[in-house]
Amino acid sequence: MSDQSNQKIYWFxxxxxxxxxxxxxxxxxxxxxxKETHEELAESIKTMETExxxxxxxxxxxQMAQIIAKEExxxxxxxxxxxxLRGNGxxxxxxxxxxxxxNFSRYRSEWLKRKRLCTDMVDMIADGMxxxxxxxxxxxxxxxxxxxKVTVPPADKTPGAFLKSVASPTKKKSxxxx
Length: 178
Description:
The chain has helices at residues 21-57, 61-88, 94-129, 133-140, 159-166, and strands at 2-4, 7-9. The protein is mainly alpha-helical. Among the domains are: 22-51; 118-178, no CATH class. Strand 1 and strand 2 form a beta hairpin.
């Protein structure tokens, strides 16, 4: 044993231990067997670690029970909703849908036509009065679509989809929509 500062070094004094060739070969065989065992154990550990990672990634029984309960609740809610819709008895036929789409298109184009006519008329009044457009709007009491935060539905959207996309429970409808 040698003691140097904070380190201690131990070594085996081999001068008292002599190995014969037969002992040396048996020790070598034992060393080879131990190396083989070490490799097998290392491979086994690696396989077990990958299995552990896979097992840790899967939910536990308690977590799975919670997930199943949540999904069952969602299924029950959706089933009840589907039954309610089925039981409502309101089924829209393709002919009804086509008629409603034509009406929607007609009303939309009429809205745009009237908006354009009204805007042109108010512009002419503003020019004749030599006032700004906003002043004329305020004077006459016109509320524009933009002020009321009303948007013209796009022609390619269905009425229901458009109404759902702009519906807001706090939105107040204006009396002076164009």
